[in-house]
């Protein structure tokens, strides 16, 4: 199992990450599509070859082709949106916020899966990418669709843990002189 391989690759000082991987992903109460879509989208968002390489096969095995593509689409579109909307938020000149973005985001309207699942994946990617405006927007849509806070929190935990695992493994690879 890829999750076990990731845990085994983590150094002893990252024992908390190992435990959290087991608790949050290995023993998740989320339905398989929400769990593995979140895992895949977050693995892509971490930009870590080792994390993506280990988790993608299991995600693909647990997702329909439509969900697999939608999770990857969430990572892709949020990679763009998080930069754009985070920049709008950070700029002192609020005139930019009144300007038309003109960015294509068709997948958000028709993701090919349940809207709530796609929004959950977008939310988790936005957590990794640090876009408060996107986090607020996706959280509001999730709540409007009746998604409980505990489910939203579960996606935050997945995002946080995978980002920590990615940073640790990629840093250890650099320290060992290995390129990803």
Automatic annotation (TrEMBL):
Write out the catalytic residues in the record.
131 (proton donor), 134 (cysteine sulfenic acid (-soh) intermediate)
Enzyme category, top tier: oxidoreductase
Q: Which Pfam families match?
A: CMD (PF02627)
What EC identifiers does the entry list? 1.11.1.28
Catalysed reaction(s) here are: N(6)-[(R)-dihydrolipoyl]-L-lysyl-[lipoyl-carrier protein] + a hydroperoxide = N(6)-[(R)-lipoyl]-L-lysyl-[lipoyl-carrier protein] + an alcohol + H2O
- Quaternary structure note: Homotrimer.
Task: Specify the protein name.
Answer: Alkyl hydroperoxide reductase AhpD
Taxonomic source organism? Kitasatospora indigofera
